[in-house]
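User:
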Amino acid sequence: MAGVLASTIFSLRETQPVGGVIAILAIVWAVGLLDDLKGTSPYLRLVVDFGCGAMLWLLGWKLQWFSNPYLDCLATMAFLAFAINAMNMLDGMDGLALTVSGIASAGFIVLLAGQPIGFASGLAWALAAVCAAMFLYNRPPAQIFIGDSGSTLLGAALAFLVLDGARTDSAAHSAVVPLLFVALPLADAFAAVIRRLRARQSPFGGDRRHFYDLLLRRGWSVGQILWASGITTLAFVMISLAAAHDHIGVWLPLFGCAGLCGFFGVQLGSFEPESPAAGKPISATHLKQSLNEE
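Assistant: Predicted structure:
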């Protein structure tokens, strides 16, 4: 949270209501901290997430996908809530959420490089610095955990940067391009919702069939999964930046990323509910070796 506050230095000359944005990020962080300390209902957190999305919409940061403002408001609320929970789901392995968030933040730094320095660019720089610093302690085996307060704040901040792109640029790719920066956690969360609904379980319930869990079952080490996730996110970022500069069509990376995520999700079994025949359990010996091989 301190890194987010540091980004306000870049917004001193802005007339945009960044104070309201900081308050929203603080609310998300505080609810996550409360969940870390005492535990909270997932429905309460969802209500808070949707409320923060409505506040962002009122402040002018919103998706503009429909001609109806109420549908745009609902889409903005749903997107913020989904991004927050997607990053929280990604934080099931040491260093993974920070790796993906750090690379996505670097992508936003490049994307915003041609614009005047403001709160959004300052936030991107702050996120990249915080992720790099925290990774030194959160890499496997982790000495410090970022918890729900850290993962949900990362999700909310990255979602805001996506919405800021849609707010400052009226082009068709304004929201699509930065959306692909966080394609990996969004795809993993989408698969989680599908398989839990197929199993007639609550989407808020936990399981061990995220892509990193399934890769561990296939014999991958934690280090290999971190490298693969980082390279995948970097590839998504580079392709998206190429689309932002009109080197390739914007819909090509969108459908390409969706197709790749869907294909590998099916191959891994990410959409399949947990069952005794779903795969071998992760042995304690293999997991310990993976965590300590760094």
